[in-house]
Amino acid sequence: MAKSKRQLPSPKYFFSLVEWNGPAFNRRKLHMKRALTVKDIAEVARKSVPKVVFDYVDGAAFEEISIARSKETFSRVEFNPFVLRDSSKIDTSTEIFGKKVDLPIIFAPTGYTRFMHHTGEPAVAEVAEAKNMVYCLSTMGTTSPKELGDAVPGVRRWFQLYLMKNREDSLGVIKQAKDSGFEALILTVDTAVSGIRLKDVRNGLTIPPKIRFGTILAIARKPRWWMNLLTTAPLEFAAFRGWTKSLSELASVIFDSSVTFEDVKWLRSVWDGPIIVKGVQRVEDARMLVEIGIQAIVLSNHGGRQLDRGTVPLEILEEIVGAVGSKVDVYIDGGVLTGQDVYAAIGLGAKGVLIGRAYLYGVMADGGRGVDKVIEILRSELVNTMALTGTRNVSEIRAAGVRIRP
């Protein structure tokens, strides 16, 4: 039998194998450096903020069945790879309303962003600008449309709107968005009432968070987060400054359970830019919206945060694209946590995806730097998947298609 030839160890060779890393004094930065997936970043986020903050982002409505089903459906997607194609150059760009973006990913509207990290919405918008992406500001944001426009004037920005019971209030917010350079409105229609989010109720969520006996322990555990909260501007809903009542009372003012398709027509009459309707879950509703003349729809169950056991957007995507996709842009959100999830949605016909939890994990973990890392992870995963499937651009992903296994 062949034998290895032995020799005395070479000190030079031995030391060339040693990684000379100094001691890690900042464990969070070390964990962020080592994070390879969005799920890894979520774990850093969990350790970086109080439980009430993480649970608000990570949780969903009632028994959290909808969000679990959305994630599970993505896990059953099967790709259809081409072989023997030159995949040395991958182009992830696409056009949204006639303008090029570098990724088919949009920053979804999310409320209370300064609750996750003191830099708030502008930090996310700065990443969107740097990456040539679209950022959506929420009505429930902790930064006003004017403040965001002043802070990050170069970012492409959409404003998410809830039609309020008092239409004059809605008109005031719409005017502020228009005056502040927002190019589109994204109307959320799945919030006739607020969903039952048991984690938030059990945690006693309020904005700003109340100081209770148990808060003392929370401060001891997360001193950085609390110090940032207490030494920056008061945490409040920018569109409702001065509101002193509870979240549930605010929701009763914002969410109008009487909204119908006629109100969408009214919105069309007072806004001359693109309108995107978010929260569509049925083919017939999509067709009605096309007849009204909106420009895009988002298939969404609100990330499972409103109606639990609602429709899984990915499962209805192909049918709705077949019904209306030639007339409006069709986007999807909910459970998108990897670049392969992005690929899956496009393969089933989506124009692109909206991400919410994914980038909020990055915000909680490390502010704008965390968001930047999330986008780079998603980009890397998408490019890798495109190369391995022989799809060199977004159009080829749609041509290749994907399957959802039973």
TrEMBL record:
Ordered alphabetically, the record's keywords are: Flavoprotein, FMN, Oxidoreductase
Which species does the entry assign this protein to? freshwater metagenome
PANTHER family, per database record: 2-HYDROXYACID OXIDASE 1 (PTHR10578:SF107), S -2-HYDROXY-ACID OXIDASE-RELATED (PTHR10578)
Q: Which GO molecular function entries does the Swiss-Prot or TrEMBL record give? A: FMN binding; oxidoreductase activity, acting on CH-OH group of donors
Q: What is this protein called?
A: Unannotated protein
Q: Does the keyword Ribosomal protein apply?
A: no
Q: Which family does it belong to?
A: Belongs to the FMN-dependent alpha-hydroxy acid dehydrogenase family.
Do you know which InterPro entries this protein is assigned to? Aldolase_TIM, Alpha-hydoxy_acid_DH_FMN, FMN-dep_DH, FMN_HAD, FMN_hydac_DH_AS
Q: Which residues cross the membrane?
A: none
Domain named FMN hydroxy acid dehydrogenase: residues: 30-406
